[in-house]
Design goal:
Mean pLDDT: 96
Radius of gyration: 19 Å
Helix content: 40-55%
Number of helices: 12
CATH superfamily: Aldolase class I
CATH architecture: Alpha-Beta Barrel
Strand content: 15-25%
Number of strands: 13
Order of helices and strands: HHHEEEHEEEHEHEHEHEEHEHEHH
CATH class: Alpha Beta
Length: about 350
């Protein structure tokens, strides 16, 4: 109810300014929002209080961790973060397509750099599961991308439950080339080896996930699943935003360059979840993200084979109440499945 009153004021601002204002007052929303019911899930060697997480991109610099945790998420994925600071693309770089309940962003992985990011993260006092989306700097060539990912992993390792390897942002030129099976295998093999050395050094396990594009073909997804299994990843996040403009072609901002997220992505993202879940057969969990704007949308991802889900654009259009709605829907599904199995 509170967000229904605030949304017209936020939507009167340009999207990036509204983004920062909403984050500033997230702690108030967390105080007023109902707490989601417990719905524990075990995945990737981690225990999640519920299966609904925040997707990467909302808190890029780990500046609002406590406020976002208060909204009732089962986990938070922060970032993306790059080794060195970079400003990203010039503004405007975030656009609403309100008629389609969608966003288009071309932030370009703006980042404070991993050193400042870690200092921000260390200030947060939360019990939530924390994941961080990591990327390479724009000027790092793909043949040296592993060095950037390793640097972020090493800096973050003592402070997080998992990292998400971002090879799918549509706003860094050439990044998606790293999803090619051969390139992906080499990259993940090296990151896995570094994780094993860090696990021995720190005496704790940090899970490795890979965030993939919704624009890959079915054959490419099958190859990616094989690589994830072979390189012993702990999970896969499906999906990032899309370059497709299906569903927004006729709207004012539909032509903007960047990645499209929100309702138009829902069906495709769910299909990718199902393809990966079928291919992986439970060997590693799928985290479903893309177009979740209701509890029913969250359940749809679980029915397709996801173990966990994430929201971002839905939070912009629906507000904090979406978290409770999604958790409650997931819990109802779990209870129905439990009763049916007796």
């Amino acid at each position: 109810m509170l967000y229904a009153l605030a949304r017209p004021l936020l939507f009167a601002l340009d999207p990036e300014t509204a983004h920062h204002v909403a984050l500033k007052y997230a702690s108030v929303a967390g105080f007023l929002a109902p707490r989601p019911p417990p719905c524990p899930v075990k995945a990737m060697g981690l225990e999640f209080p519920n299966p609904v997480g925040l997707a990467a991109g909302l808190d890029k610099h780990a500046e609002h961790v406590e406020s976002l945790s208060a909204l009732g998420f089962g986990f938070l994925e922060l970032g993306g973060v790059t080794p060195r600071p970079q400003s990203g693309n010039p503004r405007p770089r975030l656009f609403r397509v309100t008629e389609a309940r969608a966003l288009i962003n071309r932030y370009g992985l703006n980042s404070v750099g991993v050193k400042v990011f870690v200092e921000n993260l260390k200030q947060a006092r939360v019990s939530s599961v924390i994941g961080v989306n990591i990327g390479k700097n724009k000027d790092t060539p793909n043949d040296r991308a592993a060095e950037d990912f390793e640097q972020c992993l090493e800096a973050l390792y003592p402070h997080v439950g998992y990292v998400s390897i971002n090879v799918s942002s549509p706003n860094t030129a050439g990044l998606r080339d790293l999803q090619d099976a051969a390139a992906l295998s080499l990259l993940l093999h090296r990151i896995h080896d570094r994780r094993e050395a860090l696990r021995e050094k720190h005496g704790r396990h940090v899970a490795l996930t890979v965030k993939i594009s919704p624009d890959s073909s079915d054959a490419e997804l099958a190859q990616i699943a094989d690589v994830l299994r072979r390189e012993r990843m702990d999970g896969v996040i499906a999906t990032n935003s899309t370059l497709s403009r299906a569903g927004v072609e006729d709207y004012a901002n539909g032509f903007q360059a960047g990645g499209l997220s929100g309702a138009p992505l829902r069906e495709r993202a769910t299909r990718v979840v199902k393809i990966l879940a079928d291919a992986l057969q439970g060997e590693l969990p799928v985290i479903g993200v893309g177009g979740i704007l209701s509890g029913a949308d969250a359940v749809e991802k679980l029915d397709a084979g996801a173990a966990l889900v994430q929201i971002y654009t839905g939070l912009i259009y629906r507000g904090p109440e979406l978290v409770n709605e999604c958790v409650s829907a997931c819990l109802a599904r779990s209870k129905t499945a439990s009763s049916a199995s007796r």
